[in-house]
Amino acid sequence: MRNLIFVAFVEPVAEGQVFLRSAWPLHITLVRFDVGSPDSADVAVRLAEQAGPHASEALGAGLTVGEDAAFGRNGTVPVSLVEPHPSLQALHEQLVHAVTDLGAAILTPRHTLSGYRPHVSHHGAAGAGVKRLHPGDAVVLDRIALVDMAPDGDHTIRRVLRLWSREPEAG
Fold first, then answer.
1. What backbone torsions phi and psi does residue 83 show, to the nearest 5 degrees?
2. Which of 25, 4, 20, 29 lies closest to 162, judged by CA?
3. DSSP β-ladder status, 157-165 and 18-20
4. 141 near 69, Cβ under 8 Å?
5. Could you read off the pLDDT of 116-160 as tens digits, one per residue?
6. E strand or H helix that includes residue 90
7. How many CB atoms lie within 10 A of CB 85?
8. Closest among 77, 33, 68 to 51, alpha carbons compared
9. How far, in whole angstroms, is CA 27 from its chain's centroid?
């Protein structure tokens, strides 16, 4: 299976950009899923085609960062919640339907649709320059992407396969 994810980046990225699994740019997860086979580029192309209109429609939505929370199995993942917004929820739901229509398996089904809690995970060790957002921060939904979680079978890196953006791509 091919492991892919739709995200909304809150930091500049470029289509084709590769980054380490441990060095994600700050982002809001929209939906993570497995689909097709590891070499099925056509599935990613079809998903990008289906997602494009929904991503374009959501671009420009103004979001607000809410309170901090702890996610993960033992509450060990610090996150900044994103306050509910109709455009973000609609985008999430449209992408869930797009991936399930193609036979994808959503990895966290109870965290989708009515269970969706948009958030931005904090990155880095406490006291060592943690990258994060803070309550009250304003975020514009201006970079929506389809990301390969293991390009060419390499689980140590990620690659931005498709980017929908309101601004020029970063290099």
1. -60, 145
2. 4
3. antiparallel
4. no
5. 999 999 987 666 678 999 999 999 999 999 999 999 999 999 999
6. helix 86-101
7. 17
8. 33
9. 6
